[in-house]
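Lay summary

Proteins are chains of building blocks that fold into shapes. Our project writes down both the chain and a compact code for its shape. Here are two examples, one after the other.
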Amino acid sequence: MLIFGEEDQGGFFWSLLWTLDGLEADPTVWFLEYDEPPIAEQEPLSGFLIQFSLYEAAMGADYNSFSAWAGATHLGALGRYRGRVDPVRRLTSRSRTDAFARGHRQGAVNAA
């Protein structure tokens, strides 16, 4: 396995299956926790990198895009919004967040 991403506290990481033939064009991404069997992500590497970037943008933004902090004004505006929103699958099988993107805006909605 070729590790390419690690959680900041070292609790889990993402990797690609590496063989002598090299990598496939859009390989499967594997989620690994120590002492647990690997879990295949739902998206191949190309989709995983997009959704990981969206997740990091939403979670690390200065405006803190958490749904728990949305007030009545923001929720009303969201209810009036009629644009198309393309869903992105969960980042990991253990994630409690669904990420959505439209244009250059990213956000995360707590699914719990």
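And here is the second example, written the same way.
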Amino acid sequence: MMYALLFALVSGTTALV
């Protein structure tokens, strides 16, 4: 569960870059 949120956050950060 938490990992899914973490992955989404990292994905969003990568999309920003």
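What can we say about the second shape? The helical segments are 2-16.
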